[in-house]
Design a protein that fits this description.
Elements (H helix, E strand, L loop, with lengths): L1 H29 L7 H30 L3 E10 L2 E8 L5 E7 L5 H20 L8 E5 L10 E6 L3 E2 H7 L4 H20 L2 E2 L8 E3 L5 E3 L6 E2 L23 H4 L8 H16 L9 H12 L13 H8 L9 H4 L5 H8 L12 H6 L34 H14 L4
Antiparallel strand pairs: 1-2, 2-3, 3-5, 4-5, 6-8, 7-10, 8-9
Keywords: ATP-binding, Cell cycle, Kinase, Magnesium, Nucleotide-binding, Phosphoprotein, Serine/threonine-protein kinase, Transferase
EC number: 2.7.11.24
Catalytic activity: L-threonyl-[protein] + ATP = O-phospho-L-threonyl-[protein] + ADP + H(+)
């Protein structure tokens, strides 16, 4: 009888929090001043913080109930549109883990992304000898197959991510070089498997105090090995955070390649070297303008065969000055690094290096000498049918697939 009783307690606690929210709202409205008031603003901030803390405690309590006795949840590492990431301990071993909770049926795309991430992480765990991809340790689905609402993905725990590191301190050249090398080591088996990550950015690069780096978040990834159709539907879903988005994506190319990830690697290296994003556009239009300000409009003509004619015409009309050289942008950076940037952050995807060429570049020689590169077996396209369905099929199919995958998952 304990689980139903606990479930009832959880529901009751949520109802109490919601009642308290209404009470707070009424109290705030009654005490709202007619004009500016510092005391009112302070009071409002205090109420907001109290609500936030109550909900954090409730989220931890609910997660403890959902995932059972194997793990002890003791904190929240982060929250976002993807869900909530908890900090937890494996009770038997004392190993620290990160537990990502996703509610896949809140939006039609979330179910696809959750299933995609689960299957890709499992594929790389079982088919790639790579230390630079986050390792999936366990999958927990509380409830019954027909009614479950949440999925918990248990992963390795890392200290922080590259985004937070870059916001807190400048990196030395050696650190930037070593991190870039590890990004490439993680990206190689991903590309070898016939997968595009499509969202390489500092916040998806987890790091620890020993400077180990691991690529995470495969929810926006796509497979390239569809046996029955062309890849013309690859751009049916939002991809890549704007600042790290390759120009062919921004210009509505429907035939982009692994080169989109290489562009993101180059943008990330620039940010590690300077502490500032290379193209921090506030919106779509400014993003394109920032790229044009560096390269001019002429290089975009190479995208004519694959990109929207309307988008290219828009680029041609943008005002721009003389194209900048990498030496002008980074006068204190050595020529090897500038060459690496020029061959990764290039408008024409054909001019960008492959991940193998990046690893063989002289910039990586210090770390990449006699080491055998990690690789991975190609993914089975039948396992990623949802990457080629248009329009998306019903969420119930994804529900059953998620359930079956979780039941079949074997924790190491």
């Amino acid at each position: 009888m304990e689980p139903p009783m606990i479930c009832s307690m959880v529901q009751q606690a949520w109802e109490e929090i919601n009642k308290e929210d209404h009470r707070y709202d009424a109290l705030i409205e009654r005490n709202k001043p007619s004009g500016p008031s510092i005391s009112y603003v302070r009071h409002l901030a205090k109420v907001t913080e109290t609500r936030k803390e109550e909900r954090r405690k409730m989220a931890i309590y609910k997660a403890r109930h959902d995932i059972g006795d194997t793990y002890y949840v003791d904190g929240i590492l982060g929250e976002g549109g993807y869900g909530v990431v908890f900090s937890a301990l494996h009770r038997k071993t004392g190993r620290r883990v990160a537990v990502k909770r996703v509610s896949p049926f809140e939006h039609s795309l979330l179910a696809v992304r959750t299933l995609r991430e689960l299957r890709l992480l499992r594929h790389f765990r079982d088919n790639a000898m790579c230390e630079n991809i986050i390792r999936l340790l366990d999958v927990i689905i509380p409830g019954e197959r027909a009614t479950f609402q949440e999925v918990y993905l248990v992963q390795e725990s890392m200290d922080t991510d590259l985004y937070r590191v870059l916001r807190s301190q400048p990196l030395s050249f050696d650190h930037a070089q070593y991190f870039a090398y590890q990004i490439l080591l993680g990206l190689k088996p991903i590309h070898d498997a016939g997968v595009l990550h499509r969202d390489i950015k500092p916040s998806n690069l987890l790091v620890n105090a020993d400077c180990d780096l691991k690529i995470c978040d495969f929810g926006l990834a796509r497979t390239l090995c569809n046996p029955t159709q062309s890849n013309e539907h690859l751009l049916t879903e939002y991809v890549a955070t704007r600042w790290y988005r390759a120009p062919e994506i921004m210009l509505s190319s429907r035939q982009y390649t692994k080169a989109v990830d290489i562009w993101s690697v180059g943008c990330t290296l620039y940010e590690m070297l300077t502490g500032c994003p290379l193209f921090p556009g506030k919106d779509y239009h400014q993003q394109i303008s920032l790229v044009v300000n560096v390269f001019g409009t002429k290089p975009f003509e190479a995208l004519r065969s694959s990109c929207s004619a309307r988008a290219l015409e828009y680029v041609r009309r943008l005002p721009c000055g003389k194209p900048k050289t990498w030496k002008e942008m980074l006068p204190d950076v050595d020529d090897l690094t500038l060459d690496f940037l020029a061959r990764t952050v290039a408008i024409n995807p054909a001019d960008r290096m492959t991940v193998d060429e990046c690893l063989a570049h002289p910039l990586m020689t210090l770390y990449h000498q006699d080491q055998e590169d990690p690789t991975a077996q190609p993914v089975d396209p039948r396992r990623f049918y949802f990457d080629y369905e248009q329009p998306a099929i019903g969420s119930q199919v994804y529900r059953y697939d998620l359930w079956e995958d979780a039941q079949a998952f074997s924790a190491p």
